[in-house]
C-alpha cells in the first residue's frame, strides 16, 4: 500500500485578509506543520496543491508543487487534480495548509484505519463535526470526484456521500482541528 500526503494550499484566505498559510507560528509557516506531520509518518510523495499566484512563496524541501490550472475551484477540485497526476498512490492523506497545531500522532491514528479494504475514505469527527480536509481518500474516490466536478458539485461532502467512509471520533481537546480564521484568532491562540 502506498500513501501520498496532500497539503491543500490554494485558498483565498478571504476572512484572514492575506494568505494565512504563510503566517509564522514558532518560527515556521502554518503549511510547514502539515508537511511535517505527513513526513514524520513516512508518506511520500508530499504534494502542495496550490496555484500560480501562491506557488513562488513556498519554501519546502522534498515537496512537490502541484499547480492547479484553474484557481479557487475548491478542495475537491484540488484532490481530483492531484489524484489524476499521481497514478501510483493507493491513498491520499489530505491536510489543509492552515493547521499549525496538527500533530504527527493525529496523522498516525488515521492511517491505522486504511488497512481495511472496506472503506474509501477515513474522516475524523470532533464534537459531532466532520472534518473532510483532515482526512484520507482512497484512489477509488477519483471516479466519483470526477462525476461530481462534471456536475459542478465541488463539495467534499458530496464526494463522501457517494463512497463508503469511516468516521473516527476525536476528543474536544485534540489540537489538530484548530483552524485560524482571522488575525484575532491567531493572537488569541498565541496567548494560550
Automatic annotation (TrEMBL):
<dbReference type="InterPro" id="IPR013482">
    <property type="entry name" value="Molybde_CF_guanTrfase"/>
</dbReference>
<dbReference type="GO" id="GO:0061603">
    <property type="term" value="F:molybdenum cofactor guanylyltransferase activity"/>
</dbReference>
<dbReference type="GO" id="GO:0046872">
    <property type="term" value="F:metal ion binding"/>
</dbReference>
<dbReference type="GO" id="GO:0006777">
    <property type="term" value="P:Mo-molybdopterin cofactor biosynthetic process"/>
</dbReference>
<dbReference type="Pfam" id="PF12804">
    <property type="entry name" value="NTP_transf_3"/>
</dbReference>
<feature type="binding site">
    <location>
        <position position="98"/>
    </location>
    <ligand>
        <name>Mg(2+)</name>
    </ligand>
</feature>
<keyword id="KW-0501">Molybdenum cofactor biosynthesis</keyword>
<protein>
    <recommendedName>
        <fullName>Probable molybdenum cofactor guanylyltransferase</fullName>
        <ecNumber>2.7.7.77</ecNumber>
    </recommendedName>
</protein>
<dbReference type="GO" id="GO:0005737">
    <property type="term" value="C:cytoplasm"/>
</dbReference>
<comment type="function">
    <text>Transfers a GMP moiety from GTP to Mo-molybdopterin (Mo-MPT) cofactor (Moco or molybdenum cofactor) to form Mo-molybdopterin guanine dinucleotide (Mo-MGD) cofactor.</text>
</comment>
<keyword id="KW-0460">Magnesium</keyword>
<comment type="similarity">
    <text>Belongs to the MobA family.</text>
</comment>
<keyword id="KW-0342">GTP-binding</keyword>
<keyword id="KW-0547">Nucleotide-binding</keyword>
<feature type="binding site">
    <location>
        <position position="98"/>
    </location>
    <ligand>
        <name>GTP</name>
    </ligand>
</feature>
<keyword id="KW-0479">Metal-binding</keyword>
<feature type="binding site">
    <location>
        <position position="20"/>
    </location>
    <ligand>
        <name>GTP</name>
    </ligand>
</feature>
<dbReference type="GO" id="GO:0005525">
    <property type="term" value="F:GTP binding"/>
</dbReference>
<feature type="domain" description="MobA-like NTP transferase">
    <location>
        <begin position="5"/>
        <end position="155"/>
    </location>
</feature>
<dbReference type="InterPro" id="IPR025877">
    <property type="entry name" value="MobA-like_NTP_Trfase"/>
</dbReference>
<keyword id="KW-0808">Transferase</keyword>
<keyword id="KW-0963">Cytoplasm</keyword>
<dbReference type="InterPro" id="IPR029044">
    <property type="entry name" value="Nucleotide-diphossugar_trans"/>
</dbReference>
<feature type="binding site">
    <location>
        <begin position="8"/>
        <end position="10"/>
    </location>
    <ligand>
        <name>GTP</name>
    </ligand>
</feature>
Amino acid at each position: 500500500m502506498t500513501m501520498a500526503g496532500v497539503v491543500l494550499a490554494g485558498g483565498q484566505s478571504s476572512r484572514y485578509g492575506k494568505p494565512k498559510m504563510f503566517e509564522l507560528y514558532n518560527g515556521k509557516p502554518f503549511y510547514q506543520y502539515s508537511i511535517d506531520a505527513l513526513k514524520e509518518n513516512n508518506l511520500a510523495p508530499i504534494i502542495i496543491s496550490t496555484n500560480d499566484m501562491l506557488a513562488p512563496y513556498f519554501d519546502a524541501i522534498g515537496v512537490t508543487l502541484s499547480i492547479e490550472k484553474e484557481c479557487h475551484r475548491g478542495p475537491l477540485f484540488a484532490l481530483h487534480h492531484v489524484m489524476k497526476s499521481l497514478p501510483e498512490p493507493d491513498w491520499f492523506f489530505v491536510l489543509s495548509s492552515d493547521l499549525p497545531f496538527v500533530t504527527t500522532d493525529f496523522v498516525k491514528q488515521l492511517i491505522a484505519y486504511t488497512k481495511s479494504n472496506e472503506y474509501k475514505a477515513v474522516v475524523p469527527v470532533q464534537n459531532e463535526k466532520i472534518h473532510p480536509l483532515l482526512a484520507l481518500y482512497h484512489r477509488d474516490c477519483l471516479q466519483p470526484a470526477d462525476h461530481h466536478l462534471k456536475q459542478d458539485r465541488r463539495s467534499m461532502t458530496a464526494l463522501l456521500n457517494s463512497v463508503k467512509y469511516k468516521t473516527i471520533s476525536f476528543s474536544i481537546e485534540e489540537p489538530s482541528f484548530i483552524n485560524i480564521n482571522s488575525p484575532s484568532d491567531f493572537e488569541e491562540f498565541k496567548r494560550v
